[in-house]
Amino acid sequence: MSKKVVVLAEAREGALRNVSFEAISAAKKISDGGEVVAALFGQDVSGLANSLFEYGADRVVLVEHPHLNFYTADGYSQALLAVVDQEKPEAIVLGHTALGKDLSPKVASRLQTGLISDVTSIEGEGDDAQFIRPIYSGKAFEKVEAASEPLFVTVRPNNIEPLEAEAGKTGTVDTLSVDITNLRTVVENVIRKATDGVDLSEAKVIVSGGRGVKSEEGFAPLKELANLLGGAVGASRGACDAEYCDYSLQIGQTGKVVTPDLYIAVGISGAIQHLAGMSNSKIIVAINKDPEANIFKVADYGIVGDLFEVMPLLIEEVKALKA
Ligand code: FAD
Fold first, then answer.
1. What is this model's ipTM?
2. Which residues form a coiled coil (predicted)?
3. Interval between CA 245 and ligand 1 midpoint (Å)
4. Of 42, 131, 303, 313, which residue is least crowded by CB atoms under 10 Å?
């Protein structure tokens, strides 16, 4: 049976995050020919609706309010519940982002439905859809079916391919007025840390450093390689604990979970807690001077050598390829 599916489009600093398009792609599979409605929250964000149509949304429900300019669990849950109340969807899809992880359990519990979180792929369509999600820190995968309505799913960024964009596709934008009240917190402003641009959780390429990098300055070649490849810099907890870099870069069980197309692990031993955050990357390259390092067990390509010799050579090769 075809289904109506509501997707929450995630916007940040005036731009939609890729995961919004991946969520629409997931919603299309779940809808099995039904309607995919993108919920778009914020202030002065109506201009973003066109991209949602181009990537497959059939309709957009726009909720604009000053209190939706920045995410708060109270504000966004009121807006999403209002959209669900109006649309009565059979399914809801969010990105498994910091926002989605915070919002989804709150809304699912209000709707008294189950939550299938951190989905990395979907097999089948409509009523036959089965959701694949990692368990035991990525050491195994389980296949889950929905047992309650509405079906509520969060999808891990970088795992489900967005649909091919249909340039110029448009659709109907319905405006829904929601009275956002009783906020326990109001975000006045967000002061971002200076970063090198690419968001770690959505990066297609990550160059990640461990304790083997030895110092803050040791991260410079990793940053250079990441810039050349249009990627982001990550780190092991070992490197963060040693104060070579900020904890916001930490990847692993207690850091960020990432699935880039290419993960280059530099001077990282491959402790189980680190693997929990990156072992599902599509291609893993490890550079380590210890041939017995655990990281080589998950690596597709391994370079046994001193990173301070290997990194400059790698950077020169990439520069030559780009020239
Ligand atoms: P090390 O284990 O010290 O490894 C350094 C590596 O660099 C070695 O393999 C060495 O051979 C190599 N090396 C050294 N010099 C060179 C050189 N010149 N050239 C090439 N290679 C070189 N860790 C995480 O990363 N993420 C987490 O989220 C996380 N969560 C944790 C949660 C808990 C509850 C616990 C207990 C631990 C957690 N850890 C986490 C820590 C984890 O167990 C490891 O201690 C940590 O990952 C080690 O970091 P590392 O590989 O950078 O350092």
1. 0.99
2. none
3. 14
4. 313
